[in-house]
Amino acid sequence: MGDMTVSKLYFLSLMTLSYIVGELTHFLINTTSREVAREVEFGEKSCFVNGSFVSDEEEDKERFDCSEAKNETHCGSEKHCYWEYSGLGIQYQVLAGPSFILVFIFSAVFLAILSDWLYDKLSRTLMLSVGTATFSTACLLMGLAGQYWQLVILRMMIAAGLSVCRPVSGGLIAELFSASSRGVANGIFSWGVYYGYGLAFVFGIYITRADVLGYGWRAPYVLAALPGLVLAVLLATTVKDPRQKDTEATAKASSDGRAYFRTLARSFLSPSMLILLLAAFFRHTAGYCWAYNTRLFFQTYYPDFDIGLWTFSASVFGGSFGVFAGGFFSDRLVQVLGLPSRLWLLSACTLLAAPLAVGTLYFSPPGAFGCLIVYYFFAETWFAVLFTVIVEIVDPEVRSTCIAIFLFLMNLVGGNLPVIVAPLRSYFNDYRSALYLVWPGFLTISAFIFLLSSLPLWIREKKINKQYSVNK
Question: Looking at residue 364, what DSSP letter applies?
Answer without folding.
Answer: P
